[in-house]
Amino acid sequence: MIPRMSDSTQNNADLLARSLAAVWHPCSQMKHYENYPLVPIARGQGVWLYDFDGRRYLDTVSSWWVNLFGHCNPRINAAITDQLGKLEHVMLAGFTHEPVVQLSERLRELAPAGLGHCFYGSDGASATEIALKMSAHYWRNSGKPQKTQFISLQHSYHGETLGALSVTDVALFRDAYGALITQQATVPSPDWRAAGIGESAEDFALRCAAQLEAHLQRHHEHLAAFIVEPLVQGAAGMAMYHPSYLRRARELCSQYDVHLIADEIAVGMGRTGTLFACEQAGIAPDFLLLSKGITGGYLPLSLAMTTDDIYHAFYADETARGFLHSHSYTGNPLACRAALATLDIFAEDDVLNANRGKASHFNRIAAPLRDHPAVRNFRNTGMIWAFEVESRHADFARRCFALGLQNELLLRPIGNTVYFMPPYAIGEDEMSMLADRTLNIVEQLQ
Ligand SMILES: *Cc1c(COP(=O)(O)O)cnc(C)c1O
């Protein structure tokens, strides 16, 4: 008999066994689940996830950086429910609908000036694919078909489909597929942890920008675009850098006729303290990519915003000059309504301002963690915190994850880097719990 899903009959062990038998989980060596079991989740509320036995976990990583205003947020739920009664989906080629138009108009108002055209995908990686293809196709339409190459930062992450993987510099994700991709060049990351002794984050950023300049000088004739994660390189272990790098990169890309693609899939939607990270450098990229938090963490939606100049290079009588890319669920109305509700919450609750208060509060109460002798490079940008832990354990990340769960925390370190990227809905009690219990875990694992 097939067990039926209901809270009364469901239990943790039962669901784990069925999941391991039928579901191939992402980003996982499945055998590791023998020793570090999956965590079954029955429901979510605010910053908390609950299992079937009533245990709870503080979602300190916002369910892979997507959740902004808590699980089961009443306002986002209401918007999706309302949309469900009107139109769940319609194809966007040849058709349009109110939510996608409104969302595009509102994002155009909010984004750095000049990004007036939104092209939609579903996952973040598809937004990267869209920008790479659109950039190279732009140059082809503009009589420069030799501009087909890309550059990214060392340790960059832009997604894991084959095109996105070609500009992703994480060996663990890339090496097995080396034969399938055209590996693109990388330039040094301005991550301030690599700065020289006595060198400021800004000086180091400018030194890295000079290396970018040298690369552009030599290769610009074949370069379509430079893709970058503004201010924080997430998958690199929350590597943070000075905004002057982006200012200089913008100047250099304009000077050398190379597009600048700002991948704000993780850092957009207020994560770095401003709605878009690029604002802190006062720049407008040629492409701005969004996904993850855009729907408040509810539904898959991604988009690439771009300029009139790029849009008009495709606008012609000839079909083949157009951008013929598509995904089945492009601009899905339910996802767009979740995104509109998310933007409403930003405006109605003055979220960016409230987050500044939350961040300074957390920085105060996390002082004992920052000052702990096993903690290195404690850093913060907006609603992202990270630090390295000096540990005697080679499998620190998995031990930390397991100890976190015992302490009601969902912690998911990247190597020895522990990071917090909580939903903005986190309250002061929850922040205290997070700081205190993480300190305790660091003491056990140092
Ligand atoms: C997560 C992420 C992506 C890929 O998004 P998916 O939805 O996982 O495909 C791309 N770029 C950055 C910076 C990301 O953090």
UniProtKB/TrEMBL annotation:
Pfam families cross-referenced by the UniProt entry: Aminotran_3
| Gene Ontology cellular-component annotations | cytoplasm
Provide this UniProt record's keywords sorted from A to Z.
Aminotransferase, Biotin biosynthesis, Cytoplasm, Pyridoxal phosphate, S-adenosyl-L-methionine, Transferase
PROSITE patterns, alphabetically? AA_TRANSFER_CLASS_3 (PS00600)
The protein's enzyme class: transferase
BP terms from Gene Ontology: biotin biosynthetic process
What this protein catalyses is:
(8S)-8-amino-7-oxononanoate + S-adenosyl-L-methionine = S-adenosyl-4-methylsulfanyl-2-oxobutanoate + (7R,8S)-7,8-diammoniononanoate
Where, in this chain's numbering, is substrate bound?
W64, Y157, K292, S326, R412
Question: Which residues participate in pyridoxal 5'-phosphate binding?
Answer: G124, A125, D263, H327, S328
Lineage, top-rank taxon, reads Bacteria
Instruction: Give site residues, Participates in the substrate recognition with KAPA and in a stacking interaction with the adenine ring of SAM.
Output: C27
Q: Which cofactor does it need?
A: pyridoxal 5'-phosphate
Residues bearing N6-(pyridoxal phosphate)lysine?
A: K292
Q: Which GO terms describe its molecular function?
A: adenosylmethionine-8-amino-7-oxononanoate transaminase activity; pyridoxal phosphate binding
Q: CDD domains, from UniProt? A: OAT_like
Its Enzyme Commission number?
A: 2.6.1.62
Tell me the pathway.
Cofactor biosynthesis; biotin biosynthesis; 7,8-diaminononanoate from 8-amino-7-oxononanoate (SAM route): step 1/1
For this protein, the record's Gene3D superfamilies field holds: Aspartate Aminotransferase, domain 1 (3.90.1150.10), Type I PLP-dependent aspartate aminotransferase-like (Major domain) (3.40.640.10)
Q: Where in the cell is it found?
A: Cytoplasm
Self-association and partners: Homodimer.
Its biological purpose is as follows: Catalyzes the transfer of the alpha-amino group from S-adenosyl-L-methionine (SAM) to 7-keto-8-aminopelargonic acid (KAPA) to form 7,8-diaminopelargonic acid (DAPA). It is the only aminotransferase known to utilize SAM as an amino donor.
Q: What is this protein called?
A: Adenosylmethionine-8-amino-7-oxononanoate aminotransferase
Q: Which organism is it from?
A: Ferrigenium kumadai
